[in-house]
Amino acid sequence: QVQLVESGGGLVQSGGSLRLSCTASGSRLTVTSMGWARQAPAKEREFASVTADGRANYADSVKGRFTISMDSARNTVYLQMNSLEPEDTAVYYCTADALTYSPYDDSPIVGRYWGQGTQVTVSS
Question: Which residues pair with 65 in a beta bridge?
Fold first, then answer.
């Protein structure tokens, strides 16, 4: 019912930049917040950044280097990543908190949805 499609991952040298994008789509969709989480090899998934109502929060590990922004009209979130470090190497997952409606009984469904992930690799 809700699909999140990410793009923009890739390989970059230490100190470089990448910009991730993610668009949420679905029937009768109201997105209240969007964000990014990441999972490095052999580590647990962790919060990176989130934005809602024009405000943004960042994990300490990315603060000052990453910038999140959102185009609410397009349900699209961006993550501009600057001064990348090898420690930023991870699969980056887009998240969206959204309201939709059941196709069966039209009841409201509030949930958090995840993208499939996009690989970011930073070489030293």
Answer: none
Residue-by-residue DSSP string for 31-64: EEEEEEEEE-TTS--EEEEEEETTEEEE-TTTTT
Q: In the structure encoding, which two tokens stand for residue 21, read together?
A: 């994008």
Least Cα distance to 112 among 94, 97, 123, 124 occurs for 97
What is the C-alpha to C-alpha distance for residues 75 and 30, in angstroms, rounded to an integer? Answer: 9
Whether residue 49 contacts residue 33, with contact meaning beta carbons closer than 8 Å, is answered with: no
Q: Maximum CA pair distance of the chain?
A: 53
| Per-residue exposure over 55-66, b if at least 16 CB sit within 10 Å of its own CB, e if not | eeebeeebeeeb
Quick: pLDDT tens for 88-103. 999 999 999 999 999 8
